[in-house]
Amino acid sequence: MTQKTVVITGVSSGIGNATAKLYLSKGYRVFGSVRNVNDAQKLKALLGFDFYPLIMDVCQLDEIEKCAEVVRKELNGKPLDCLINNAGMALAGPLEYQNIQEIQNIFDVNVIGLIKATRAFLPMLKVRDFNTNRAGKVINISSVAGKISAPFLGAYASSKHAVEAISASFRRELMPYGVDVIIIGPGNVRTPIWNKAARLNEYDHTSYKKAYRNFIDYALEGEKKGMAPEEIAEVILNACEARQASSRYAPVAQKVINWILPRSFSDRTLDKIFYKNFKMGV
User: Fold this and answer.
1) With a threshold of 0.70, does the pTM exceed it?
2) Using an 8 Å Cβ cutoff, are 149 and 97 in contact?
3) Among 13, 94, 125, 266, which one has the highest count of C-beta atoms within 10 angstroms of its own C-beta?
């Protein structure tokens, strides 16, 4: 049986790292992107023979194209089974004050970077497997925030809303080629994403100080109760290997409270819930 191959962006930590480890344990060859040589060397030593580090920043088209060429040569005409667009960034803040360049950076990584990577690897995904006549899949990592916009997450949530729309358009455009595009939209995950994104004192000079701190406390508490990265990795693998995958998966801890109910509420009801939970009064 021919060894299957996947490309995963952002494998240094969190969901990407857990996903790389899971695919390797299942016998896949994994090309995983990192941003520097030091991370590449560490991961290669840790993950072993079937892991191939790709040093690239998803914002840099020339780096992506060079890495895509490396993968193309390694495949030597064989198909790429899956591209997992996992690389992303999150920074919280009130839209009234959040730095414009910071918002631009979030979109450059989460949205434009995803498009660049998809376009670079797409020719390899269109190659059909000789035995199954199936083309590859694209799996885009979105978030609950791709459907539900919380206060102080405007930049991040809007970037993930864009990922949802881009994924749907790509999926419909690529149907004639047999390339499926799937969204994974996790809820809270037990990674230090909000510890990195919080910057607790950043907005103390604004009228949002109290509400923003309440939001950060809420986010950090939710992080502790979130799913393990390994659980999200299992969902990604199952979606990749499914003959008839769903277009979207929502691995969310405490799913009724954090996903099903909020999705059933009207916008005005959600407004009131967020206002109350974060004590938004000034």
Assistant:
1) yes
2) no
3) 125
